């Protein structure tokens, strides 16, 4: 091999490495956003359980307000996760990947949560299709 071909091979290897790193960072940022959603969902679940405690009837409106605040926080974090998902797909497409089924399976975005109503008695109804 000559020096020119060595330089071309080196440059190609650097480009491939950089592409892999960019794709990896996009996936990591999305994974972090989805982990944040899970953490917020855990807080919502704990607060929902305390709402069903008979001793919490006097604090019901306050608890519902707290839960709705967490649901708003969850939905905002969900929008951020959707944006990170979009960035990952755009990055993949810029690199020539056209099929994203595996990405959809690994990084699925959960549904939006609905706030609890203060007017109706709480009945233990889920706030989304997949959870509270």
What does this structure look like?
The chain is mostly helical. It has one domain. 68% of the residues lie in helices and 0% in strands. It is rod-shaped.
Condensed summary:
The protein has three helices and no strands. It has helices at 3-51, 60-94, 101-106.
Describe the biggest sheet? none
Secondary-structure element order, N to C: HHH
Number of domains: 1
Number of strands: 0
Radius of gyration: 22 Å
Helix content: 55-70%
Q: Averaged pLDDT, please? A: 88
Coarse shape:
rod-shaped
Q: List unreliable stretches of 5+ residues.
A: none
Structure annotation, total helices: 3
Write the layout of secondary structure elements.
Elements: H1 3-51, H2 60-94, H3 101-106
Helix pairs in contact: 1-2
Features:
mainly alpha, 0% strand, single chain, 3 helices
């Amino acid at each position: 091999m000559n020096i020119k071909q060595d330089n071309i091979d080196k440059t190609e290897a650097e480009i491939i490495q950089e592409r892999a790193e960019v794709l990896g960072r996009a996936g990591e940022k999305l994974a972090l956003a989805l982990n944040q959603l899970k953490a917020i969902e855990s807080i919502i679940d704990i607060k929902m359980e305390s709402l069903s405690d008979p001793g919490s009837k006097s604090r019901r409106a306050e608890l519902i307000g707290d839960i709705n605040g967490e649901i708003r926080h969850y939905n905002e974090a969900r929008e951020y996760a959707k944006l990170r998902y979009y960035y990952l797909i755009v990055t993949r497409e810029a690199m020539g990947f056209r099929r994203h089924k595996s990405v959809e399976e690994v990084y699925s975005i959960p549904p939006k949560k609905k706030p609890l109503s203060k007017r109706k008695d709480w009945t233990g109804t889920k706030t989304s299709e997949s959870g509270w």
